[in-house]
Amino acid sequence: MLSRGGASDFHALAAAGERVVAFDGALRTSTDGRTRTVGHLASPPRALAIADGNRVLATTADGLMTSSDGGARWSALPGAPRLLFVDWADSAVVAGLDPEGTLHLSSDAGRTWRVVQETGSNPQAIEASESGGRASVTVATEEHLLTFPAP
Prior knowledge:
single chain; mainly beta; 4-stranded antiparallel sheet; about 0% helix; globular
């Protein structure tokens, strides 16, 4: 997304292809990296993640929110853990970190979750990826950088 020329400080940002979803006090989406549409998310996101350009997840104080239309409309994911950070490994596998540093995984795009590992306190970031048909998750805490296979 083109810079807003110092008018924004993006607190959360995610991109896939040409689609960008960002939050700077307002939810802003773009499908071409040049024009922006202002959207609505009931609670400010701490983190945003895009799977395939259309499916977006947002961690909020109200819980994990999902959008299947690139961030235009949002709904809660019932039963999802309360997460600080979230990332897609592929179109189905999602990894998330809760405030206590517990790693959670979903293999069905966030509909169901399981606890994978306690990673320690003070989670800082998560990165999920897929390579050669195998997903993995890297977690950063204040003390460690840990990598886990994602089944």
